[in-house]
Amino acid sequence: MEYIKCPYCGQEQIKSKTETTCIKCKKTIPSSTVGQSLIINQEKSVKTTIKKEKQTNKVNWKNLSFGLTAIAFSALLVFMLQGFSDYREQIKDLESEIANLQAEIESLNADNKSLYAEYDMLSNRYDLLSEENSNLQKQIDNKNERIEELQKQNTGAALTVSRPYTSSGSGTSTNSSSYSTGGGVVYIAEKGKKFHTYSCHYVKNSRIEIDRNTAISKEYEPCKVCMP
Fold first, then answer.
1. What percent of the chain clears pLDDT 70, i.e. is strictly above it?
2. Domain residues of the chain, as ranges?
3. 84 by DSSP, 3-state: which?
4. Contacts of 47 (CB under 8 A, 6+ apart)
5. Cβ atoms within 10 A of the Cβ of 109, count?
6. pLDDT at 38 over 80
């Protein structure tokens, strides 16, 4: 198809075979204008070609964009899958560490129970020993009171010692000694033949309890310092 352009109103229309009249202003188009139809046709052809190329380029761009999107999505999917695999390995490692920690906690709990049981046993043992120590301390106090009473009795006992003298009638001398033989508790050392009171310094490091009469019968003599 050939187009012509009206010189009056600028309307483009298809060239007619019988007449050349503008369809808009109804004026007759001069014959000189008909020669411009070729230029108009060429412009139309160029515009059509450009339009087709634009459409083709648009389709190609869409295809390229879709391809790039698919490639990017594939790369992202691969990255996500690889990251998920790494996460699974990390999760396995963490689960293994958690299991080890739980086993260690159970072991510590068992040790803690054992220590508590041992503590209870030692606490009970301590209570028994404290009670036994208290009883022993009472016995010691009673012994000390008894010793003080005996010391008071021994201190009040009379001690008589005769000194050697010479008889004027016979010209011979006689040695004799005598002391009271009252009962009571006295103390002797590992060495020596003297018996003493509890507080005498001669029996400070070695003190053996003995009855006074028994000591006398064993030829022990009273100490002249403490005078038991």
1. 74
2. 3-52, 53-156, 181-228
3. helix
4. none
5. 10
6. no
